[in-house]
Amino acid sequence: MGDQAGPEPTVSVQRDLRLLEAAGAHPAGAPAEQLAREAELPLGMAEGHLRALAEDGYLSALDDGAFALADRGPSPGAGVGAGTWTQSIRPLLTSLRDDLSAAAYLTLYDEGEIRVLQIVDSPRTPRVDLWVGFEDAGHATALGKSVLGGLDEEARANYLSRHPLADLTSHTITRREELLRELESPPMAPLARDREEYRRGTTCVAVRVYCGDQVGSLGISFRSDRMYRTSEVRAQLLSSALRVTRRLTIPE
Fold first, then answer.
1. What is the per-residue pLDDT across 1-42, written as a single tens digit (0 to 9) for each?
2. Single pTM value for the model
3. Closest Cα partner for 221 from 247, 245, 242, 201?
4. Tens of pLDDT along 87-98?
5. Residues 209, 219: Cα–Cα separation, whole Å
6. Residue 208 in contact with residue 149, Cβ under 8 Å?
7. Is the CB of residue 179 less than 8 Å from the CB of residue 146?
């Protein structure tokens, strides 16, 4: 595609946490220059993160240009509270669905399985018919391949040892060597794709997200005969993935 991939969402959120910790030491607020210095980040990078944290409600931008933890501010590293992620994540998936006119999905790798946490669709953007559970179709979906690409070698081998590469369509990858080559190839970063590998007539694109040290994926599905600008899809997915990772890692 010619454009460079940005940092993994987990790297960006680690920078967010450092800035939140720095801001937490200054109840009355501190300027960007000071927070950048205390978080050991370049000023330009820190300013971008501070603006994003303010937009998402984690920080308050004060009139004098300083930043302070918002009144409802999260505790860095607090983890996902019961019921919290549903309320905070769904609007992000809804926005992604509306921006790209495609059903949006969120998965998480949990206890050795790829689990679907949320699907946001509509009559105009219907979800794919889940005729085979995602737990058994990681090899055939962009969402699953995105997760598998983020696992370490041992975890990936464990998953593949328990899940045969079933032939779901004529496009499905059924040879382990071929699947591993795709998972490990540079084009997998940051986008994973399946074109009619899970279901005929449906294409899916996904990127990785994180909940602490758990890997997941955020993706969209659409009819294969629809045309999308790859750069637009990539930009929207990466931006949404960062915000989803931020919400999962540093919940409200």
1. 333 344 567 788 889 888 988 998 898 889 999 999 999 999
2. 0.77
3. 201
4. 679 999 999 999
5. 10
6. yes
7. no
Strands of the 30-31 sheet, one edge to the other: 30-31, 66-69, 59-61
**pLDDT tens per residue across span 197-209:** 999 999 999 999 9
| Phi, psi (deg, nearest 5) at residue 53 | -65, -35
Tokens standing for residue 53:
């944290």
Q: Which of 13, 10, 75 is nearest to 39 (CA)?
A: 13
Give the count of alpha carbons within 13 A of 116, CB side only.
Answer: 20
Report cis status (omega within 30 of 0) of the bond before 186. Answer: no
Measured CA distances, 126 to 114, 116, 167 (Å): 21, 16, 24
- Within a 13 Å sphere around the CA of 177, how many CA atoms are in the beta-carbon half? 0
Spatial contact of 63 and 241, defined as CB atoms under 8 Å apart: no
pLDDT on residue 105: 97
Distance (Å, rounded) from C-alpha 4 to C-alpha 31?
Answer: 31
